[in-house]
From TrEMBL, chain A:
Keywords of this entry: Ion transport, Iron, Iron transport, Membrane, Transmembrane, Transmembrane helix, Transport
Locations listed in the record: Membrane
Feature: compositional bias, Pro residues: 45-54
Main location: membrane
InterPro entries: FTR1/Fip1/EfeU
Keyword Ion transport: yes
Transmembrane segments: 6-32, 94-118, 130-151, 182-208, 214-235, 242-261, 335-354
Keyword Phosphoprotein applies: no
Originating organism: Somion occarium
Region (Disordered): 40-74
Protein name: Iron permease FTR1
UniProt family annotation: Belongs to the oxidase-dependent Fe transporter (OFeT) (TC 9.A.10.1) family.
Membrane association type: Multi-pass membrane protein
Pfam families: FTR1
UniProtKB/TrEMBL annotation, chain B:
Pfam families, alphabetized: Cu-oxidase (PF00394), Cu-oxidase_2 (PF07731), Cu-oxidase_3 (PF07732)
Domain of life, source organism: Eukaryota
Lineage, highest ranks first: Eukaryota, Fungi, Dikarya, Basidiomycota, Agaricomycotina
Name of this chain's protein: Laccase
Origin species: Somion occarium
Residues in Plastocyanin-like domain copies: 31-145, 152-322, 407-515
InterPro entries attached to this UniProt entry: Cu-oxidase-like_N, Cu-oxidase_2nd, Cu-oxidase_C, Cu-oxidase_fam, Cu_oxidase_CS, Cu_oxidase_Cu_BS, Cupredoxin, CuRO_2_Fet3-like
Family annotation (CDD domains): CuRO_1_Fet3p, CuRO_2_Fet3p_like, CuRO_3_Fet3p
Keyword presence, RNA-binding: no
Length: 390, 627
């Protein structure tokens, strides 16, 4: 039952994509208030000097230009009302963009999945194991990339803020395009659409090994959880919380990914075995578990129970299988696959942290590390210098 | 080559009067096509196929001078013959001899005159599945006076037929690619007839295949009946795999002989003849000659994993009263059934004597630890011992009575011990079990040997006055059959499933009977030792060729039943998986924590990245942004 109604990988994927979209949208929402209420100069605390207020009127034709008129207004009351109105307008733009993006993503996704399950389903009914293996492999690789990059999501807020500021700055600087007016619409639209498409392709890829009935519930719950978590992060935006959260999520995702990778190898091996037999092993050998139901060559363990694919006692094991890649029939291939997936994760993370200049490797520093150290030294030097002056 | 023959002629001279000699040169014959479907290489005798039928009188000694012109060791097994105290003549490869090496010869001496055996038997190779490739023929022993009265007799030879050679099929059968153990399904079935040691030719006007032109097969074969006469048909199933259901349209049948045991007339509509079984039936001819009638031999397809579209499992032949009359073929019977052989009553009364030993043998098939599907008696699959047990028995001295010396698939019996074989078939298929060198009294059948219900699993009734005796018994799935046997034949006797595929996957045990008496009566000819040595096979010691009774180093064993669950390998692998996953998750944590980047730094980096990106332009600099 478990497998037919709720797909754990799909839940996590949708959850993750929703969360990312939610963070981006929340950054946008936060920005809007900042833009409207605060001095635009505060948006860019670091080197690029704030554009001079003189230039602002030039952008008065654009949506963002409206707010630049603000300093010229005299009455505070008017100011407040105007700002509130403006914020509401901008929020509407953001939500409109988000929902439109979500709508498109869902529409495309629905079409995508519909095609899969109606047109292409007979394609893999013949060599089910092969397709399962292919899709599980794709899914595991995407999860790998997703999981590893997810750890950088705590920087997404900053990244997006910078991105947005630049978008606005650009409008202010050259002012020759009207795109600025739509930026608050387009950005969430594209973001949500992109994350949505990512999720859809994924859900499609992962779900192929699973019945169509397992998708909706997992998707809906994934979206809800993603939104709730997104809101919580927005509301109580502490970086530590976010980091802890990200670590937990990433570990979960990577557990699923390693399991999928291992399962895809298992599926390929079973496909090869079926080809050798000239028939599905359930028909040519013994169905279910036990002697005859699997290839003894390269087998590492085989339990006469606990089969996640069993229709009778697979309930708990299905979930165990979805999260940890559990199998009652492990081969050298699946075990090594699992192990090497994790080793690859470790290697990539070490390299990334090194590349970002956050750690040394065998006493060596990356270019970013050198930059960071120099900047830090510079800051220290400045402060020391200033101290010295006093 | 024939010098041994001269020696033998001297050896048997005291009873020379009754010696019937035949010279069999085992040869390959190319392009035999008995079913008209596919020509293939077969194993024949003296350049012909099928091998000639053997017909002897009960006063004869039959000597088969066998020259092996094949490229593999060969043997001949005269199925059902006792060979009392001369089990080295039994022809079971690796049990009673090492096989006749290619180019060599061996003289099989079958002392029919002293065995007291009569009736219908057959001869076939008992080496490397050669009989599946065609080395098989009926073998009849005629008494001076038959107990039943009939006017004429015919031998009806049934057999399944493969278009590929046994060795090739065996490779596919015993393979990791066949974990379910699906046996090769025959490509067709054959029915042909013999009379007076000659096969009957084809019906005039048919155009048989030139290689086997002298013999009529299936619809090209016919039996000529004359109205009012009574005929004895000796039905022999020479199959590798298939059981046959046999009946004749428009005629009634009465069983009078079963595996060489004459029995009281037993009327029956159809007979089921499993592999290696024989029945004689009396058929009284009709009085009208207005029609000819079909003879049916339908293979039991229950045992076939698949019935290919191209396979016709039901073959027919005919009884001809009048060659111009039409053939009446009534088609199928209502229902197949097995001959209730326990109901048959032998004419020579032999009451059951109490048993002192019970040998329980449970049949199981499974995919074993090498991935191939094997058969097991009591969870042990049979492998040929290195030393044929007949030689172990006479060379082990006092150790010869130690059962372990013969390998784990051996049972040692005392001389004249009465023992029961309780054959429990735990497999889903039906199996024909054959004991060499004896006839077994069938003293009980159970429909379900695991049951407590006495109607399904009745207790053995002691003191039966005259239970039926036969050498090959059919045991349906989950049934058990209890057989009482007297160990009156010193030597080593094979007991196995006669489905050749199942013998090849180890459904066999060997009964080592009366070792001390066997040593006393040892008359193993030198040629047996020579032919072993010629093949590099040791000729003394235990099953592995050692003097010791218990040291079986080097004895081929296995494969063994799979041991599932958590074994050290699996535990190690699981630990490794958990360990790497933990390390991986720690790495994730390590990556996220430490080397903290401040908001300002992040923003700085992000800005730099954005700037770099803008400089680079879209699509990795392929499209330069307008300056």
């Amino acid at each position: 039952m478990g497998k037919n109604v709720f797909s754990v990988p799909i839940f996590f994927i949708v959850f993750r994509e929703t969360l990312e979209a939610a963070i981006i949208v929340s950054v946008l929402l936060g920005l809007v208030e900042q833009i409207v209420r605060d001095d635009p100069g505060r948006l860019s605390p670091s080197p690029p000097p704030p554009p001079s207020p003189v230039e602002k009127p030039e952008g008065s034709g654009t949506g963002s230009g409206e707010l630049n008129n603000q300093p010229e207004l005299v009455h505070q009351e008017d100011n407040e009302v105007r700002a509130k109105r403006l914020i509401r307008k901008m929020r509407i733009q953001i939500f409109a963009g988000s929902f439109l993006g979500l709508f498109f993503a869902l529409a495309i996704g629905a079409a995508f999945i519909a095609v899969w399950f109606t047109q292409a389903s007979d394609l893999w009914s013949k060599s089910e194991e092969l397709w399962e293996g292919i899709f599980e492999l794709i899914a595991s690789l995407i999860i790998f990339v997703m999981g590893v990059t997810m750890l950088r999501m705590d920087r997404a807020k900053v990244k997006w803020r910078v991105k947005l500021q630049r978008a606005f700055e650009g409008k202010q600087v050259d002012g020759r395009t009207k795109a600025g007016k739509w930026v608050l619409f387009i950005l969430p639209f594209i973001t949500v659409l992109r994350e949505g498409m990512e999720a859809v392709i994924f859900v499609g890829g992962v779900s192929l090994g699973q019945p169509a009935t397992a998708i909706p519930l997992a998707t809906v719950i994934g979206i809800i959880c993603g939104l709730i978590c997104g809101f919580l992060i927005y509301a109580f935006a502490s970086r530590t919380t976010l980091t802890v959260f990200m670590v937990a999520m990433t570990n979960f995702l990577l557990l699923i990914g390693a399991g999928l990778f291992s399962r895809s190898i298992g599926a390929f091996q079973e496909n090869a075995f079926n080809n050798l037999l000239g028939a599905d092993v359930d028909d040519a050998g013994a169905a279910g578990d036990g002697p005859g139901s699997y290839d003894v060559r390269g087998n590492v363990w085989h339990l006469n129970c606990c089969n996640p694919e069993s229709k009778f006692d697979g309930q708990g094991w299905t979930i165990f299988n979805a999260i940890f890649g559990w199998t009652n029939n492990a081969t050298i291939g699946t075990v090594l696959g699992y192990v090497f997936y994790w080793l690859a994760v470790v290697a990539v993370l070490i390299y990334m942290k090194f590349k970002e200049g956050r750690t040394k490797l065998f006493g060596r520093e990356s270019a970013a590390g050198v930059r960071r150290r120099e900047r830090a030294a510079l800051d220290r030097g400045d402060s020391e210098a200033s101290v010295g002056k006093e | 080559m024939w010098s041994s023959l001269a020696l033998l002629a001297v050896a048997v001279s005291p009873v020379l009067a009754g010696v019937q000699e035949v010279w069999w040169n085992l040869t390959y014959i190319q392009d035999a096509n008995p079913d008209g479907l596919a020509p293939r290489r077969v194993i024949g005798v003296n350049g012909t196929w099928p091998p000639p039928p053997l017909d002897v009188n009960d006063t004869d000694i039959l000597v088969v001078h066998t020259l092996n012109s094949l490229d593999k060791p060969a043997t001949l097994h005269h199925h059902g013959m006792f060979f009392n105290s001369t089990s080295w003549m039994d022809g079971a490869l690796a049990v009673s001899q090492c096989g006749i090496p290619p180019g060599d010869s061996f003289d099989y001496v079958i002392p029919v005159n002293t065995s007291g055996q009569l009736g219908t038997y057959w001869v076939h190779s008992h080496a490397n599945g050669q009989y599946v490739d065609g080395l098989r023929a009926p073998f009849l022993v005629h008494p001076q006076q038959e107990k039943h009265h009939y006017d004429e007799e015919f031998t009806v030879v049934l057999g399944d037929w493969y278009h590929d050679e046994h060795a090739d099929l065996l490779k596919q059968f015993i393979s990791v690619a066949n974990p379910g153990g699906a046996e090769p399904v025959p490509d067709s079935a054959l029915i042909y007839f013999a009379q007076n040691a000659t096969y009957l030719g084809p019906i005039a006007g048919t155009s048989p295949d030139p290689v086997t032109a002298a013999v009529g097969f299936n619809e090209n074969a016919t039996l000529s009946f004359e109205p009012g006469k009574t005929y004895r048909l000796r039905v022999v199933n020479t199959s590798a795999f298939a059981m046959f259901f046999f009946w004749i349209d428009g005629h009634e049948m009465r069983i009078i002989e079963v595996d060489g045991t004459d029995v009281e007339e037993y009327p029956i509509d159809l007979i089921s003849v499993t592999v290696a079984q024989r029945y004689s039936i009396l058929v009284t001819a009709r009085n009208d000659t207005s029609a000819n009638w079909a003879i049916h031999a339908n293979m039991d397809t229950d045992m076939f994993d698949t019935v290919p579209d191209a396979l016709n499992p039901n073959v027919t032949s005919s009884i001809t009263y009048n060659s111009s009359a039409p053939l009446t073929d009534l088609g199928f019977v209502d229902e197949y059934f097995d001959v209730p052989d326990l109901d048959l009553v032998p004419l020579v009364v032999e009451p059951m004597v109490p048993a002192t030993k019970t040998v329980e043998l449970e049949v199981l098939f499974d995919t074993l630890d090498d991935g191939t599907n094997r058969a097991m008696f009591n969870m042990i699959t049979y492998n040929s011992p290195l030393v044929p047990a007949v030689l172990s028995q006479v060379t082990l001295g006092e150790n010869a009575t130690i059962q372990e010396a013969y390998g784990p698939y051996s049972i040692v019996l005392d001389h004249l011990e009465v023992f029961d074989i309780v054959l429990k078939n735990g497999d889903a298929g039906k199996h024909p079990f054959h004991l060499h060198g004896h006839k077994m009294q069938l003293i009980g059948r159970a429909e379900d040997y695991t049951s407590d219900d006495p109607s399904l699993n009745p207790p053995i009734v002691e003191g039966q006055a005259n239970p039926v005796r036969r050498d090959t018994v059919q045991v349906p799935s989950m049934n058990s059959v209890t057989m009482r046997v007297i160990a009156d034949n010193p030597g080593v006797w094979f007991f196995h499933c006669h489905i050749e595929w199942h013998l090849e996957v180890g459904l066999a045990v060997q009964f080592v009977e009366a070792p001390i008496q066997a040593q006393e009566r040892n008359g193993i000819p030198q040629v047996i030792y020579d032919q072993c040595q010629a093949q590099g096979i040791p000729t003394s010691g235990n099953a592995a060729g050692h003097v010791s009774a218990t040291d079986l180093t080097g004895l081929p064993l296995g494969p063994f039943p799979q041991i599932l669950g958590w074994r050290p390998k699996g535990i190690g692998a699981m630990t490794g998986c958990v360990l790497t996953a933990t390390i991986g998750m720690l790495a994730v944590t390590w990556y996220a924590l430490g080397g903290h980047i401040s908001e300002a730094e992040m923003e700085h980096e992000a800005r730099q990245q954005q700037e770099a990106k803008e400089k680079r332009g879209k699509f990795f600099g392929l499209l330069k942004q307008k300056a």
